[in-house]
Write a structure and sequence with these properties.
46% of the residues lie in helices and 14% in strands. The chain has 18 helices and 16 strands. The strands form five sheets. Strands 3-2-1-13-14 form a five-stranded parallel beta sheet, with helices on both faces. Strands 5-4-9-10 form a four-stranded antiparallel beta sheet. A hairpin with a 4-residue loop joins β4 and β5. α2 (62-71) packs across α3 (75-92). The chain is elongated, with a radius of gyration of 27 Å. The two termini are 42 Å apart. It binds zinc ion (2 copies). Residues 151, 153-154, 156, 158, 163, 165, 167 line the site of one zinc ion.
Length: 536
């Protein structure tokens, strides 16, 4: 079993969680898409790997400048306030990032400039003059999403970046579009921009996808292959904006980097930063070798940024970077069977959830019912029912009935039941395999089955009768259940870290591990509080 694991001969694990964009609060759908990254990070630390788990806030770009204008603030103020909010939400959700940074971070900015310059010097970024919509009245080039036009596909008025009908206006559709700021018609004016020559990397990316796609979920495979089939386009990497990272090339002082390129490079800069801070060797994690593994965790709207753009940038750097092998893309989380949409206002922010519920329960639900291969549904009613039935009634009950057994003062020095011991050992192996196969729902179900077996064992043994009739049997039963609870605190650590810590404190277990352990014999039991509260 052990040597069948994908990670068996790897030492270094790098996990990148997608970078949330700083113009709106995090909702539970975001967390559903990102939580698998934390499960992986915690699990791999537990089994003794060297883990780096990074993410950060995406701070630049037009939507933030528009929001700032509307709220009469600076883009920096908007980005900062969301960054603070995101960082707090992740912390309260027990995300164990080694670094949660932001694209406004000085280190990121300086490193990105170097990386950009390198790709330019390597000939993957080149200059091109283009005609672009310009507003004579505002005296500026107008970004796509600040343009208004009639959608050629559905006939409704739309912004220049994307119509509600799904149509993406092409360059020729934008001729004569209206400037949203002042209402005047734009003119076409020559503009010098830099472009990334993705097409030059088409073959190499195809090879990379072919080699790694068996590690990806079907959505990542399909989306990527569709994109590749259309032929990789050249993509503008500069734009006329005031808010963003400067272009480190002469002649582009009036422009900033397009968000998509610098935010994706954030994985590299964040990893470099944490290595620098901790005196680790960056190359162990991100250069091509047999000792490391890399995961990218994101929602389905972000697939090609990770399967095509990121590998393209890494290849364009020509510095023997490793390309990410594992893509963990999730589908959408619907609320009450409807898509989360700002216009419907049906989203639930993660802060709203945290104000009312325990973070472990939120994590448990979002992982156990996560949108792994298809959209999944969230309703408060289902959330409450699941948490009460699976966490409180099963796991919580097993802990309580074992450690709060009437009159029990210390963990008895019993012998662990062989069948339960074998089940525990089997569960470690099964959950390992599920996590490494990116089957997190399955992993949660496997641990739940072990809890159920524990409760069944308890009921069959009837310790309340054994206590009177045969004290040795009673001791064995309680010791077996206490040992099971100790192991559950290990197994649940990637999923419910807060309660796992509480259980370890109660049982006087130091660090979590990923192997069969036994409860401390004759340990005095005191201060056992219910770990979970029933949701009313
Ligand atoms: Zn349309
Ligand atoms: Zn204008």
């Amino acid at each position: 079993m052990e040597n069948k694991l994908k990670s068996s001969n790897k030492k270094y694990i790098l996990i990148g969680g997608a970078w949330p964009y700083a113009n709106n609060s995090l909702h539970i759908g975001h967390i559903a898409g990102l939580i698998s990254g934390d499960v992986l990070a915690r699990y791999y630390r537990q089994i003794g790997k060297n883990v780096i788990y990074v993410s950060g806030t995406d701070c630049h770009g037009t939507p933030i400048t528009l929001r700032a204008k509307k709220e009469n603030k600076t883009p920096k103020e908007i980005a900062e306030s969301y960054h603070k909010e995101f960082a707090e939400c992740f912390k309260d959700m027990q995300f164990s990032y080694d670094l949660y940074t932001k694209t406004e971070d000085e280190f990121h900015i300086e490193e990105v400039k170097k990386l950009f310059k390198k790709m330019y010097d390597n000939g993957y970024i080149y200059e091109k003059k283009d005609l672009q919509p310009y507003c004579v009245n505002c005296q500026k080039f107008v970004a796509d999403r600040e343009l208004l036009l009639t959608c050629p596909s559905c006939g409704n008025q739309t912004k220049g970046d994307m119509c509600d009908c799904g149509y993406e206006p092409k360059q020729e559709d934008l001729v004569n579009a209206v400037c949203q700021t002042c209402g005047n018609k734009t003119v076409q004016k020559e503009n010098l921009n830099l472009y990334l020559l993705l097409g030059k990397l088409q073959n190499k990316i195809e090879e990379y996808v072919e080699k790694n796609k068996q590690n990806w979920r079907p959505s990542s495979q399909n989306e990527t292959e569709k994109y590749l089939k259309e032929g990789l386009p050249e993509k503008a990497v500069t734009r006329n904006l005031d808010w963003g990272i400067d272009i480190p090339i002469e002649g582009f002082e009036d422009k900033k980097m397009y968000v998509w390129i610098e935010a994706v490079l954030g994985y590299i800069t964040a990893c470099k930063k944490i290595c620098k801070e901790r005196g680790l060797n960056f190359e162990d994690y991100w250069k091509e070798n047999d000792n490391n593994m890399m995961y990218m965790v994101h929602g389905k709207d972000n697939i090609t940024f990770h399967t095509i753009i990121l590998p393209a940038l890494l290849l364009a750097l020509e510095e023997n970077y490793k390309l990410p092998e594992y893509m963990v893309a999730t589908q959408y989380l619907n609320i009450n069977s409807e898509k989360i949409s700002k216009s419907k206002g049906n989203g639930i922010t993660i802060r709203q959830m945290l104000d009312e519920f325990d973070s472990d329960m939120i994590r448990y639900y979002l992982i156990g019912n996560g949108p792994e291969r298809k959209d999944s549904n969230f309703s408060l009613e289902e959330f409450k029912l699941t948490c009460n039935a699976e966490i409180v009634n099963k796991y919580g009950n097993l802990i309580n009935r074992t450690l709060k057994f009437k009159g029990l003062e210390k963990i008895p020095a019993g012998i662990v039941n062989e069948k339960i011991k074998n089940l525990i050992q089997k569960t470690y192996d099964e959950v390992s395999k599920s996590i490494e196969d990116l089957e997190f729902r399955k992993a949660v179900a496997q641990i739940r089955e072990l809890v159920e077996e524990g409760n069944k064992f308890y009921e069959e043994r009837k310790p309340w009768e054994e206590q009177k009739e045969n004290i040795n049997d009673f001791n064995d039963t309680i010791y077996t259940c206490a040992t099971l609870v100790a192991n559950l605190s290990n197994l649940y650590e990637p999923f419910m870290p807060k309660s796992s810590q509480k259980v370890r404190d109660m049982l006087n277990i130091g660090k979590s591990s990923w192997e069969y352990i036994e409860a401390n014999k004759n340990m005095k039991i005191e201060g056992v509080e219910p770990i979970f509260n029933r949701i009313k």
